[in-house]
């Protein structure tokens, strides 16, 4: 009897999850807020015309939201005692929170109490890619906002220091596979990173903390170039382009870099340690299959955006993204 009850419970949970995903669709606001995408895009065009380097951080923010509690806007919440997701070490380098609030305010003005912060963030991420000359996709909408944000739960985020095994486990936890891993990693084609996210590869690979303690998998000339920018293991301020030369343009150059062992992070280099992801990197390193990669990236972004959304009567529609409604 107990096993039968368990089977029924699991079946119901699976049905509920399927229904939740099914409630997300591209025309969710077609009647309640038909202008939402125009409002978001207007703000995005204005922001990126002034600060094109903001595209990478905004894409990353959506990624960080979806990997913790699903795509529920929890990464945007403030905490008086600094225990929210945004206070955790992996999110200390996120930027663009003020801009998200500005977009949300514009959406609220057009359609009060209608569009969730989670959906606003999903649209911002799509436009960040598209306005950086990347692919366009229709974003399934209908997410609602969560009211819980816990810093310790950011352990679910794939760290830049992770090996392939850890990466696949963390991606699988949000229903993403090895193809999604290699495709979404290419989001590193736009944006910058602080030295401390990878400087152990330059000075402390085995824990010796000296200039000769380097990661042997990193291409030597690129290693020296990075050392000229990141002077020591303690450099906490310098920013480095993740895709040198085209870090404001969404393209396939990321794969070219990784194939030459010039991926910035451990996690980039890890893509060469698995036959499937290595083959994907090498295929797209040529740049000859841009349309194919763009289609793959759009599909993986949609799949990631389906990670455990709150829908229907779950959660709320926050008036401001950094605080729950009162």
Write the layout of secondary structure elements.
Blueprint: H1 2-22, H2 36-50, H3 55-66, H4 97-110, H5 117-130, H6 164-172, H7 178-185, E1 192-194, H8 200-203, H9 220-229, E2 239-241, H10 253-259, H11 266-269, H12 275-285, H13 290-305
Antiparallel strand pairs: 1-2
EC number: 1.11.1.7
Site (Transition state stabilizer): 60
Enzyme class: oxidoreductase
Q: Tell me the total number of β-strands.
A: 2
- Helicity, in percent? 40-55%
Q: Gyration radius, to the nearest Å?
A: 20 Å
State the end-to-end CA separation.
Answer: 44 Å
Tertiary shape = globular
Tally of alpha and pi helices: 13
Succession of helices and strands: HHHHHHHEHHEHHHH
- Uncertain ranges: 1-21
Helix-strand makeup class: mainly alpha
What integer is the average pLDDT? 93
EC number: 1.11.1.7
Protein name: Peroxidase
Keywords: Calcium, Disulfide bond, Glycoprotein, Heme, Hydrogen peroxide, Iron, Metal-binding, Oxidoreductase, Peroxidase, Pyrrolidone carboxylic acid, Secreted, Signal
GO molecular function: heme binding; lactoperoxidase activity; metal ion binding
């Amino acid at each position: 009897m107990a096993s039968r009850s368990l089977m029924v419970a699991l079946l119901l949970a699976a049905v509920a999850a399927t229904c939740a995903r099914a409630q997300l669709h591209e025309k969710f606001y077609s009647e309640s807020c038909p202008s939402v995408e125009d409002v978001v895009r207007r703000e995005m065009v204005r922001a990126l015309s002034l600060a094109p380097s903001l595209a990478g951080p905004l894409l990353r923010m959506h990624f960080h939201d979806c990997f913790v509690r699903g795509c529920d806007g929890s990464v945007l919440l403030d905490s008086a005692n600094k225990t929210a997701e945004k206070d955790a070490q992996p999110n200390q380098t996120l930027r663009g929170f003020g801009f998200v609030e500005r977009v949300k305010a514009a959406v609220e003005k057009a359609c009060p109490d209608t569009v969730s912060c989670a959906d606003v963030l999903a649209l911002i991420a799509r436009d960040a890619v598209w306005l950086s000359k990347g692919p366009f996709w229709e974003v399934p909408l209908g997410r609602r906002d969560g009211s819980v944000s816990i810093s310790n739960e950011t352990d679910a985020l794939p760290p830049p220091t992770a090996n392939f095994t850890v990466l696949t486990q963390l991606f699988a936890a949000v229903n993403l596979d090895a193809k999604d891993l290699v495709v979404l990693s290419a989001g590193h084609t736009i944006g910058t990173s602080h030295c401390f996210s990878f400087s152990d590869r330059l000075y402390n690979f085995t824990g010796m903390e000296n200039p000769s303690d380097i990661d042997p998998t990193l291409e030597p000339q690129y290693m020296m170039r990075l050392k000229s920018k990141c002077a020591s293991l303690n450099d906490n301020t310098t920013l480095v382009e993740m895709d040198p030369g085209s870090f404001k343009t969404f393209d396939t150059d990321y794969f070219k870099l990784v194939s030459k062992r010039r991926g910035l992070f451990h996690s980039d280099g890890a893509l060469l340690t698995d036959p499937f992801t290595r083959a994907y990197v090498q295929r797209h390193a040529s740049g000859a299959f841009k349309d194919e990669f763009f289609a793959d990236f759009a599909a993986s972004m949609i799949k990631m955006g389906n990670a455990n959304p709150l829908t229907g009567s779950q959660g709320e529609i926050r008036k401001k993204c950094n605080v729950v409604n009162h």
